[in-house]
Design brief:
Blueprint (H helix, E strand, L loop, with lengths): L1 E9 L8 E6 L2 H13 L3 E8 L8 E2 L2 E14 L2 E19 L5 E7 L13 H17 L17 H11 L4 H9 L3 H14 L4
Parallel strand pairs: 1-3
Antiparallel strand pairs: 1-7, 2-6, 3-4, 3-5, 5-6, 6-7
Helix pairs in contact: 3-5
């Protein structure tokens, strides 16, 4: 169990290995960034279920993903631009809201997806992702500004599935359900089905 993990409720879902850029300006989150960078520690990202990203502490999903700060710059006084990358999924056991409205929680870490190759039946998913990544890299050569983080692993069912989940035009709640699945081939199977239904594959 991890105690007192700071939680950043957002209107988006973070996957392990995913890139999440953030613009931080509220005092509670500026303090959070200072705390995390000083300790080289992650914070947690959870999808909002009630409330908003600013103001009062929002309600959020019980399953989230840790976010590691890999780069930041100050756009102007009091505004930080962060580049974060998803780490490990977790389940909130107990949460607390401080006087500064920052949420902290005791969490249970969820094991990473078991290593599994992309099944032959879903090879088209890996090919589609490869084309998307090639296009992203061609349009943005700076690795620190790309919306996908190396290393790339087009042979991994988990990596391919997670990246495609980030690109799919689906509601956040559907993305959340895919993130919570604990079997990478099943996640990839659902993505493959969606892509076929929408005639992408």
């Amino acid at each position: 169990m991890v105690r007192d993990l700071a939680i950043f409720p957002l209107g988006t879902v973070l996957f392990p290995g995913g890139v999440l850029p953030l613009r931080v300006f509220e005092t509670r989150y500026l303090d959070l960034v200072r705390e995390c960078t000083a300790a080289d520690a992650p914070f947690g990202v959870c999808l909002i279920t009630e409330g908003s990203e600013v103001g009062e502490a929002a309600r959020h999903e019980a399953v989230g993903c840790t976010a590691h700060i890999v780069d930041f710059d100050m756009e102007k006084a009091g505004v930080l631009n962060l580049r974060t990358v998803g780490g490990q999924r977790f389940r909130v056991l107990e949460r607390r809201v401080g006087k500064d409205r920052l949420i902290r929680a005791d969490v249970e870490m969820i094991d990473a997806d078991e290593p599994a190759a992309v099944p032959r039946d879903f090879a088209a998913c890996a090919s589609l992702l490869r084309r998307l990544v090639d296009d992203l890299v061609a349009r943005e050569p700076d690795p620190m500004r790309q919306m996908i983080a190396a290393p790339y692993d087009f042979d991994s069912a988990a990596w391919v599935g997670n990246r495609l989940c980030e690109f799919l035009p689906i509601p956040p709640r559907a993305r959340q359900k895919l993130m919570e699945l604990e079997d990478a081939p099943t996640r990839l199977s659902l993505i493959h089905q969606y892509l076929q239904q929408h005639r992408v594959l």
